[in-house]
């Protein structure tokens, strides 16, 4: 037969006091040996989790600030790049205009020099032609009148004719 609760006899008072004392002693020992360190470990774990959450939140905020700063720097960089490009375009335009002006000035001066050279060559050619015509005229005239004039008369006639040409 299996004993049941109603079948058991009441426990003597000495045994009950012993069990209570043993239970309380066990509870004190468990509190110091198991529950205390377990509570400390759980508190430390909770503190670490809270610190990790705070650190993660702070890192997230820092990352957001850094991203905003990077975007601002990127926008500033784009502005600076557009300013540099604008300055380069203006500089290129100014240099182009200066080169065109210089080229036009040089072409004008070359044209004027060429005109002056042409005028000088024309003057020299006319002078040479006058001299050649005079020499030819004298030669023809001397051949025509050679029979009637002496050599001295021919020379004086030529000198007079040349003097007339130089005055013109």
Automatic annotation (TrEMBL):
Keyword flag Mitochondrion: no
Presence of keyword Transmembrane: yes
Subcellular location: Cell membrane; Endomembrane system
Membrane topology: Single-pass membrane protein
Ranges annotated as biased composition (Basic and acidic residues): 62-79
InterPro entries for the chain: ATP_synth_b/b'su_bac/chlpt (IPR002146), ATP_synth_F0_bsu_bac (IPR005864), ATP_synthase_B_chain (IPR050059)
Transmembrane segments: 12-30
Keywords: ATP synthesis, Cell membrane, CF(0), Coiled coil, Hydrogen ion transport, Ion transport, Membrane, Transmembrane, Transmembrane helix, Transport
Pfam families linked to this entry: ATP-synt_B
Segments for region (Disordered): 62-89
Primary role: Component of the F(0) channel, it forms part of the peripheral stalk, linking F(1) to F(0).
UniProt xrefs under NCBIfam families: ATP_synt_b
Quaternary structure note: F-type ATPases have 2 components, F(1) - the catalytic core - and F(0) - the membrane proton channel. F(1) has five subunits: alpha(3), beta(3), gamma(1), delta(1), epsilon(1). F(0) has three main subunits: a(1), b(2) and c(10-14). The alpha and beta chains form an alternating ring which encloses part of the gamma chain. F(1) is attached to F(0) by a central stalk formed by the gamma and epsilon chains, while a peripheral stalk is formed by the delta and b chains.
PANTHER family: ATP SYNTHASE SUBUNIT B (PTHR33445:SF1), ATP SYNTHASE SUBUNIT B', CHLOROPLASTIC (PTHR33445)
Family statement: Belongs to the ATPase B chain family.
Protein name from the UniProt record: ATP synthase subunit b
Taxonomic classification: Bacteria, Bacillati, Bacillota, Bacilli, Lactobacillales
């Amino acid at each position: 037969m299996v004993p049941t609760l109603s079948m058991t006899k009441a426990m003597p008072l000495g045994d009950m006091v012993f069990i209570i004392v043993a239970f309380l002693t066990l509870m004190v020992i468990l509190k110091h040996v198991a529950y205390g360190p377990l509570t400390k470990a759980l508190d430390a774990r909770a503190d670490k989790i809270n610190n990790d959450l705070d650190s993660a939140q702070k890192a997230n905020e820092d990352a957001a600030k850094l991203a905003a700063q990077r975007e601002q720097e990127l926008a500033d960089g784009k502005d600076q790049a557009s300013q540099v490009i604008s300055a380069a375009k203006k500089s290129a335009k100014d240099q182009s205009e200066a080169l065109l002006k210089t080229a036009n000035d040089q072409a004008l001066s070359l044209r004027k020099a060429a005109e002056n050279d042409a005028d000088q060559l024309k003057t020299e050619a006319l002078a040479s032609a006058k001299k050649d015509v005079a020499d030819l005229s004298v030669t023809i005239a001397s051949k025509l009148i050679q029979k009637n004039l002496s050599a001295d008369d021919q020379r004086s006639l030529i000198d007079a004719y040349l003097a007339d040409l130089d005055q013109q």
